[in-house]
Amino acid sequence: MGCGNTTSTGTKDGVTEKARVTFVLGGPGCGKGTQCSLMVERDDFVHLSAGDLLREEQATDSKDSKLIKDYIKEGKIVPVEITCNLILKAMQKKGMSKKFLIDGFPRNEDNLQGWNKVMNKHANVVQVVFFELSEDIMLERIMKRAETSGRADDNKEAAEKRFNTFKNETMKVIKHFEGKKMVHKVDATGGIEDVYENLKDGLIV
Ligand code: UDP
Ligand code: MG
Q: Which residue of 7, 60, 65, 105 is most buried, as measured by CB atoms within 10 A?
Protein backbone atom coordinates (compact mmCIF):
# COMPACT_ATOMS: atom_id res chain seq x y z
CA MET A 1 0.00 0.00 0.00
CA GLY A 2 0.99 3.57 -0.51
CA CYS A 3 3.42 2.87 -3.32
CA GLY A 4 0.91 3.97 -5.92
CA ASN A 5 -0.44 1.33 -8.22
CA THR A 6 -0.73 3.14 -11.53
CA THR A 7 -2.63 0.44 -13.38
CA SER A 8 -6.13 1.13 -12.08
CA THR A 9 -8.08 4.34 -12.16
CA GLY A 10 -10.38 4.05 -9.14
CA THR A 11 -9.13 5.37 -5.82
CA LYS A 12 -10.72 5.57 -2.42
CA ASP A 13 -8.99 7.18 0.56
CA GLY A 14 -5.79 7.15 -1.41
CA VAL A 15 -5.88 3.37 -1.76
CA THR A 16 -6.19 2.06 -5.28
CA GLU A 17 -9.49 0.36 -5.84
CA LYS A 18 -10.05 -2.47 -8.26
CA ALA A 19 -13.24 -2.98 -10.21
CA ARG A 20 -15.57 -5.57 -8.68
CA VAL A 21 -16.61 -8.02 -11.35
CA THR A 22 -19.41 -10.57 -11.55
CA PHE A 23 -19.23 -12.91 -14.52
CA VAL A 24 -22.65 -13.86 -15.86
CA LEU A 25 -22.75 -17.15 -17.75
CA GLY A 26 -25.28 -19.59 -19.13
CA GLY A 27 -26.18 -21.01 -22.53
CA PRO A 28 -27.36 -18.86 -25.45
CA GLY A 29 -30.88 -17.56 -24.89
CA CYS A 30 -30.96 -18.38 -21.17
CA GLY A 31 -31.86 -14.81 -20.22
CA LYS A 32 -28.54 -13.29 -19.17
CA GLY A 33 -29.21 -9.91 -20.77
CA THR A 34 -32.73 -9.64 -19.35
CA GLN A 35 -31.65 -10.44 -15.81
CA CYS A 36 -28.61 -8.15 -16.11
CA SER A 37 -30.95 -5.24 -16.93
CA LEU A 38 -32.86 -5.92 -13.72
CA MET A 39 -29.63 -6.03 -11.70
CA VAL A 40 -28.65 -2.67 -13.20
CA GLU A 41 -31.99 -1.12 -12.20
CA ARG A 42 -32.32 -2.70 -8.79
CA ASP A 43 -28.84 -3.55 -7.54
CA ASP A 44 -26.70 -0.76 -8.95
CA PHE A 45 -24.53 -2.80 -11.29
CA VAL A 46 -23.01 -1.64 -14.57
CA HIS A 47 -23.73 -4.15 -17.35
CA LEU A 48 -21.28 -5.01 -20.11
CA SER A 49 -22.24 -7.72 -22.58
CA ALA A 50 -19.21 -9.17 -24.35
CA GLY A 51 -21.42 -10.16 -27.28
CA ASP A 52 -22.82 -6.62 -27.58
CA LEU A 53 -19.32 -5.11 -27.44
CA LEU A 54 -18.22 -7.48 -30.22
CA ARG A 55 -21.29 -6.67 -32.33
CA GLU A 56 -20.60 -2.93 -31.89
CA GLU A 57 -16.99 -3.41 -32.94
CA GLN A 58 -18.08 -5.54 -35.87
CA ALA A 59 -20.37 -2.75 -37.08
CA THR A 60 -17.41 -0.36 -37.40
CA ASP A 61 -14.84 -0.79 -40.12
CA SER A 62 -12.07 -1.68 -37.67
CA LYS A 63 -9.45 -4.23 -38.64
CA ASP A 64 -11.20 -6.95 -36.60
CA SER A 65 -14.73 -6.49 -37.91
CA LYS A 66 -14.59 -9.18 -40.59
CA LEU A 67 -13.09 -11.74 -38.21
CA ILE A 68 -15.70 -10.97 -35.54
CA LYS A 69 -18.52 -11.34 -38.04
CA ASP A 70 -17.29 -14.75 -39.19
CA TYR A 71 -16.78 -16.05 -35.65
CA ILE A 72 -20.21 -14.93 -34.45
CA LYS A 73 -21.99 -16.53 -37.38
CA GLU A 74 -20.26 -19.82 -36.66
CA GLY A 75 -20.91 -19.62 -32.92
CA LYS A 76 -17.14 -19.71 -32.35
CA ILE A 77 -15.24 -17.83 -29.67
CA VAL A 78 -13.43 -14.69 -30.79
CA PRO A 79 -9.71 -14.53 -29.80
CA VAL A 80 -9.43 -13.23 -26.26
CA GLU A 81 -7.15 -10.28 -27.06
CA ILE A 82 -9.95 -8.65 -29.02
CA THR A 83 -12.72 -9.32 -26.50
CA CYS A 84 -10.67 -8.49 -23.43
CA ASN A 85 -9.51 -5.17 -24.85
CA LEU A 86 -13.07 -4.15 -25.65
CA ILE A 87 -14.15 -5.07 -22.11
CA LEU A 88 -11.28 -3.17 -20.47
CA LYS A 89 -11.92 -0.07 -22.59
CA ALA A 90 -15.64 -0.17 -21.75
CA MET A 91 -14.88 -0.59 -18.03
CA GLN A 92 -12.47 2.32 -18.02
CA LYS A 93 -15.06 4.47 -19.75
CA LYS A 94 -17.57 3.71 -16.96
CA GLY A 95 -14.99 4.19 -14.19
CA MET A 96 -13.13 1.35 -12.52
CA SER A 97 -14.69 1.85 -9.08
CA LYS A 98 -18.03 0.46 -10.26
CA LYS A 99 -19.60 -2.98 -9.78
CA PHE A 100 -19.60 -4.67 -13.16
CA LEU A 101 -21.62 -7.49 -14.64
CA ILE A 102 -19.59 -9.02 -17.44
CA ASP A 103 -22.18 -10.96 -19.43
CA GLY A 104 -21.22 -13.83 -21.73
CA PHE A 105 -17.52 -13.93 -20.86
CA PRO A 106 -15.22 -15.83 -20.22
CA ARG A 107 -16.47 -18.45 -22.64
CA ASN A 108 -13.50 -20.83 -22.65
CA GLU A 109 -10.20 -21.51 -20.89
CA ASP A 110 -8.31 -19.27 -23.29
CA ASN A 111 -10.69 -16.39 -22.45
CA LEU A 112 -10.08 -16.98 -18.76
CA GLN A 113 -6.29 -17.05 -19.13
CA GLY A 114 -6.36 -13.90 -21.25
CA TRP A 115 -8.52 -12.19 -18.66
CA ASN A 116 -6.20 -13.17 -15.81
CA LYS A 117 -3.17 -11.91 -17.68
CA VAL A 118 -4.59 -8.51 -18.54
CA MET A 119 -7.24 -7.91 -15.89
CA ASN A 120 -5.99 -9.25 -12.55
CA LYS A 121 -4.35 -5.91 -11.86
CA HIS A 122 -7.52 -3.99 -12.70
CA ALA A 123 -10.32 -6.15 -11.32
CA ASN A 124 -11.41 -8.66 -8.69
CA VAL A 125 -13.86 -11.35 -9.71
CA VAL A 126 -16.25 -11.72 -6.80
CA GLN A 127 -18.70 -14.32 -8.11
CA VAL A 128 -19.95 -16.15 -11.19
CA VAL A 129 -23.69 -16.25 -11.84
CA PHE A 130 -24.72 -19.31 -13.85
CA PHE A 131 -28.22 -19.39 -15.34
CA GLU A 132 -29.21 -23.00 -15.82
CA LEU A 133 -31.82 -23.85 -18.47
CA SER A 134 -32.68 -26.76 -20.78
CA GLU A 135 -31.72 -26.51 -24.44
CA ASP A 136 -35.37 -26.86 -25.48
CA ILE A 137 -36.36 -23.71 -23.64
CA MET A 138 -33.21 -21.84 -24.72
CA LEU A 139 -34.05 -22.64 -28.34
CA GLU A 140 -37.64 -21.48 -27.85
CA ARG A 141 -36.40 -18.17 -26.45
CA ILE A 142 -33.87 -17.72 -29.26
CA MET A 143 -36.51 -18.35 -31.92
CA LYS A 144 -38.81 -15.84 -30.23
CA ARG A 145 -35.99 -13.29 -30.03
CA ALA A 146 -35.19 -13.93 -33.72
CA GLU A 147 -38.43 -12.17 -34.68
CA THR A 148 -36.94 -8.84 -33.58
CA SER A 149 -33.20 -9.18 -32.86
CA GLY A 150 -31.85 -9.15 -36.41
CA ARG A 151 -28.93 -11.24 -35.12
CA ALA A 152 -27.14 -13.45 -37.64
CA ASP A 153 -26.87 -16.20 -35.03
CA ASP A 154 -30.51 -16.25 -33.89
CA ASN A 155 -31.60 -19.22 -35.97
CA LYS A 156 -31.82 -22.95 -35.35
CA GLU A 157 -28.61 -23.88 -37.16
CA ALA A 158 -26.40 -21.29 -35.45
CA ALA A 159 -28.09 -21.97 -32.12
CA GLU A 160 -27.06 -25.66 -32.30
CA LYS A 161 -23.47 -24.57 -32.86
CA ARG A 162 -23.66 -22.21 -29.91
CA PHE A 163 -25.10 -24.95 -27.70
CA ASN A 164 -22.13 -27.13 -28.60
CA THR A 165 -19.63 -24.38 -27.91
CA PHE A 166 -21.32 -23.77 -24.57
CA LYS A 167 -21.22 -27.47 -23.58
CA ASN A 168 -17.71 -28.17 -24.84
CA GLU A 169 -15.97 -24.96 -23.79
CA THR A 170 -17.92 -22.68 -21.47
CA MET A 171 -18.96 -25.43 -19.05
CA LYS A 172 -15.25 -25.95 -18.28
CA VAL A 173 -14.99 -22.35 -17.12
CA ILE A 174 -18.04 -22.80 -14.91
CA LYS A 175 -16.52 -26.00 -13.46
CA HIS A 176 -13.29 -24.12 -12.78
CA PHE A 177 -15.14 -21.53 -10.70
CA GLU A 178 -17.25 -24.22 -9.04
CA GLY A 179 -14.00 -25.67 -7.75
CA LYS A 180 -13.34 -22.29 -6.16
CA LYS A 181 -16.85 -22.17 -4.65
CA MET A 182 -17.58 -18.99 -6.59
CA VAL A 183 -20.61 -20.06 -8.62
CA HIS A 184 -24.13 -18.90 -7.83
CA LYS A 185 -26.33 -21.31 -9.78
CA VAL A 186 -29.74 -19.94 -10.74
CA ASP A 187 -32.72 -21.85 -12.10
CA ALA A 188 -33.63 -19.84 -15.21
CA THR A 189 -36.92 -21.61 -15.99
CA GLY A 190 -40.04 -19.54 -15.46
CA GLY A 191 -40.97 -15.90 -15.78
CA ILE A 192 -38.65 -12.92 -15.50
CA GLU A 193 -39.63 -12.06 -11.91
CA ASP A 194 -39.42 -15.71 -10.78
CA VAL A 195 -35.91 -15.98 -12.14
CA TYR A 196 -34.91 -12.67 -10.57
CA GLU A 197 -36.12 -13.97 -7.22
CA ASN A 198 -33.98 -17.10 -7.61
CA LEU A 199 -31.09 -14.88 -8.65
CA LYS A 200 -31.40 -12.46 -5.73
CA ASP A 201 -31.26 -15.30 -3.21
CA GLY A 202 -27.50 -15.64 -2.75
CA LEU A 203 -26.31 -12.87 -5.06
CA ILE A 204 -23.43 -10.76 -3.73
CA VAL A 205 -24.49 -7.16 -4.40
N1 UDP B 1 -18.65 -14.04 -28.44
C2 UDP B 1 -17.31 -14.33 -28.27
N3 UDP B 1 -16.70 -14.05 -27.09
C4 UDP B 1 -17.37 -13.51 -26.06
C5 UDP B 1 -18.73 -13.21 -26.20
C6 UDP B 1 -19.36 -13.48 -27.42
O7 UDP B 1 -16.66 -14.84 -29.17
O8 UDP B 1 -16.74 -13.28 -25.01
C9 UDP B 1 -19.29 -14.30 -29.74
C10 UDP B 1 -19.60 -15.78 -29.93
O11 UDP B 1 -19.47 -16.08 -31.29
C12 UDP B 1 -21.06 -15.87 -29.49
C13 UDP B 1 -21.62 -14.56 -30.02
O14 UDP B 1 -20.54 -13.62 -29.82
O15 UDP B 1 -21.72 -17.01 -29.98
C16 UDP B 1 -22.89 -14.05 -29.35
O17 UDP B 1 -22.66 -13.87 -27.97
P18 UDP B 1 -23.81 -13.34 -26.99
O19 UDP B 1 -23.25 -13.35 -25.61
O20 UDP B 1 -24.38 -12.08 -27.49
O21 UDP B 1 -24.95 -14.46 -27.12
P22 UDP B 1 -25.93 -14.95 -25.99
O23 UDP B 1 -25.20 -16.04 -25.29
O24 UDP B 1 -26.23 -13.80 -25.09
O25 UDP B 1 -27.14 -15.44 -26.71
MG1 MG C 1 -26.73 -11.89 -24.44
A: 105
* Structural domain that includes position 102: 19-200
Give one DSSP letter per residue of 115-156, joined into a string. Answer: HHHHHTTTEEEEEEEEEE--HHHHHHHHHHHHHHH--TT-SH
In the reported structure, the alpha carbon of residue 190 is separated from the centroid of ligand 1 by a whole-number distance in angstroms of 23
Report the amino acid identity of residue 174: I
Q: State the total domains in the chain.
A: 1
pTM of the model: 0.92
pLDDT one digit per residue (tens) for the chain, 205 residues: 434 444 455 565 656 689 999 999 999 999 999 999 999 999 999 999 999 999 999 999 999 999 999 999 999 999 999 999 999 999 999 999 999 999 999 999 999 999 999 999 999 999 999 999 999 999 999 999 999 999 999 999 999 999 999 999 999 999 999 999 999 999 999 999 999 999 999 999 9
CATH of the domain at 181: 3.40.50.300
Q: Which residues lie below 8 Å from residue 59, measured CB to CB, with a gap of 6+?
A: 65
- Give the residue among 29, 126, 23 at the shortest CA–CA distance from 83: 23
Of 128, 119, 135, 131, whose CA–CA distance to 176 is shortest?
128
Residue 27 Cα to ligand 2 midpoint, Å, equals 9
What is the rounded distance in angstroms from the CA atom of residue 70 to the CA atom of residue 76? Answer: 8
